[in-house]
Write a structure and sequence with these properties.
Order of helices and strands: EHEHHEEHEHEEEEHHEHE
Number of helices: 8
Distance between the termini: 20 Å
CATH architecture: 3-Layer(aba) Sandwich
CATH superfamily: Acetylglutamate kinase-like
Strand content: 15-25%
Number of strands: 11
Helix content: 25-40%
CATH topology: Carbamate kinase
Structural class: alpha/beta
Strand order of the largest sheet: 4-3-5-2-1-6-10-11-9
CATH class: Alpha Beta
Number of domains: 1
Mean pLDDT: 95
Length: 235
């Protein structure tokens, strides 16, 4: 790895909805794109993964009677739509990007090729990894840990709707306990629903710390990278 800092940023599909109940809120997507631009301006190499929950949730579809594998593939297609949306918006802010898809879609995205992705990062392009791992039964959180390991990222940042890790939902429970620093094993043992267990285990094996911060607060991601503000760190 070169001397520049390389991060993987994981954003949930729900964060693109804004106040809507479905789909993509362009003003919210622009806010997130500007947050990413501020990180990019600090000469930090950025790998980006966006979930698909604003469009389609595989597990929910499976629960409603669609075959789980089929349902998960539909969820992967939703992540491709989000990746293309974010690519377009990021490029209007002046950030060069490339989308690489784990499912072959040669007309709209490059296939995922590790060495090519690294070359894009070295050429100061943001790489958006779409379609998860390309396999059903694996979440985009697990895809984030996998790609961060393959790209030799120094940290995974999961930008979510809360400030970090709590032992219960802080939006519903005002007495929820906040963890500023916690080990991978504690997250797994306490069954804290911050990322799925496969994602946590893979990050632990690869020794990549995970930072959880609030995507809705201006500069929160950049602040967390610099070790300031409120966030949680798993290591």
């Amino acid at each position: 790895m070169n001397s520049k800092k390389r991060i993987l940023l994981k954003i949930s599909g729900e964060s693109l909805m804004g106040d809507s109940t479905y789909g993509l809120d362009v003003s919210k997507a622009k806010f997130i794109a500007n947050e990413i631009k501020n990180i990019f301006a600090q000469k930090i190499e950025i790998c980006l993964i966006i979930g698909g929950g604003n469009i389609y949730r595989g597990i929910k579809g499976a629960a409603e009677g669609i075959d789980r594998s089929t349902s998960d593939y539909m969820g992967m297609l939703a992540t491709i739509m989000n990746a293309l949306s974010m690519q377009s918006i990021l490029e209007t802010t002046g950030c060069p990007t490339r989308v690489q898809s784990a499912i072959n879609m040669s007309q709209i995205a490059e296939p995922y090729i590790r060495r090519k992705a690294i070359r894009h990062l070295e050429k100061n392009r943001i790489v958006i990894f779409a379609a998860g791992t390309g396999n059903p039964f694996f979440s985009t959180d697990t895809a984030a840990s996998l790609r961060a390991s393959e790209m030799n990222c120094s940290v995974i940042i999961k930008a979510t709707k809360v400030d970090g890790i709590y032992n219960s939902d802080p939006i519903k429970d005002t007495s929820a306990k906040f963890y500023s620093n916690i080990s991978y094993s504690e997250v797994l043992n306490k069954d804290l629903k911050v990322m799925d267990s496969t994602a946590i285990s893979l990050a632990k094996e690869s020794k990549i710390p995970i930072i959880i911060t609030n995507i809705n607060k201006k500069n929160s991601i950049l602040d967390a990278i610099n070790g300031i503000g409120k966030f949680s760190k798993i290591s």
